[in-house]
Specification:
alpha+beta; 6 helices; Creatine Amidinohydrolase; 5-stranded antiparallel beta sheet; 33% helix; 297 residues; disordered N terminus
Length: 297
């Protein structure tokens, strides 16, 4: 596995080559594997903090060297970010899991400089509302890809996602995130000298520093590394890797996917079609292969 060196400067987004994309794909699959493994271990009475810690241990045991952010977990109505007003409310709590309660697991590991950021929604048992939300998310994956390929302004794409969510009868809960974030750009991380990852409010210190530098550079270049419906994203699609996370909420239940979208100078495609939500859609007949938009590795 090559060791990725972070670029010393950024020009309209970091654009990985084919070898780098394969490494990012491996890390994304690792991140989803962690979420699926931990989901199978969840039992009634377990807390969000315990679910987050299980993800962390699993990932560190499987070669993770740093964090973009360390794992999160949300249970029950917290999957819809109910009442969230400040950043600390996103942190895992002592909320306990119950039968037929939805949950979201979210992690963002780094392996040798390559980054993933994923979100995995499921349920301990059965939940018809969650099933509905997970089905409806398929249309958002297709819509985002289509509009980016049409080179629509990124704010316009986000606004289209918001409108689709409302037409579906749901709430766009990604608007509860700081800066109403639909997605954020992903850059390679520099390799650390220390053996233990250092975090601040669950975000890797190097990730925070890199995002700060990138924000200043991007502002000078006229674009934003945070993709939202706001004026700051009113620019053409920026080439690079973007962690996209449309988040739907309905009657106290929330669901999202999060995965990497590759934007080039004249095209776009999802990094991988083997994520759990895509497999689910295919099994349910909701995602014909010809609509995937994923290029062969």
């Amino acid at each position: 596995m090559p060791l990725l060196k972070a670029p010393t400067s950024v020009a309209r987004g970091y654009v990985p080559n084919a070898d780098d994309l394969e490494e990012f794909r491996k890390v994304q699959r690792l991140a989803y594997a962690a979420a699926e493994a931990v989901a199978k271990e969840l039992k009634p009475g377990m807390t969000e903090k315990e679910a987050a810690r299980l993800q962390e241990v699993w990932l560190l045991d499987h070669g993770v060297t740093d964090w973009f952010h360390s794992p999160f977990a949300w249970f029950g109505d917290r999957t819809a970010f109910q009442g969230f007003r400040v950043a600390v409310q996103f942190l895992p709590t002592n909320r306990r899991l119950e039968e037929n309660m939805p949950f979201i697991l979210d992690n963002a590991p780094v392996v040798n400089g390559y980054v993933a950021d994923i979100g995995y929604a499921s349920v301990l048992g059965e939940n018809r509302i969650l099933d509905l939300l997970l089905d409806d998310l398929a249309e958002h994956r297709a819509l985002i890809l289509q509009l980016i390929r049409e080179r629509r302004p990124m704010s316009e794409v986000s606004q289209a996602v918001d409108r689709l969510i409302l037409r579906q009868g749901h709430e766009p809960r990604h608007k509860a995130y700081p800066f109403e974030t639909l997605a954020h750009t992903v850059q390679p991380m520099p390799l650390r000298a220390s053996k233990q990852p250092n975090t601040l409010f669950k975000f890797g210190l190097q990730a925070v520093e890199a995002l700060g530098r990138l924000t200043l550079t991007a502002r000078k270049q006229g674009w934003s590394p945070i993709w939202s419906s706001n004026e700051s994203s009113n620019h053409a699609p920026v080439p690079g890797l973007w962690a996209v996370e449309p988040h739907l909420g309905f009657r106290g239940v929330g669901a999202k996917f999060e995965e990497l979208l590759v934007i080039t100078e004249d095209d776009a495609y999802w990094l991988d079609d083997e994520s759990p939500h895509v497999r689910r859609w295919k099994e349910r007949g909701l995602w014909p292969l010809e609509q995937s938009g994923v290029k062969a590795a």
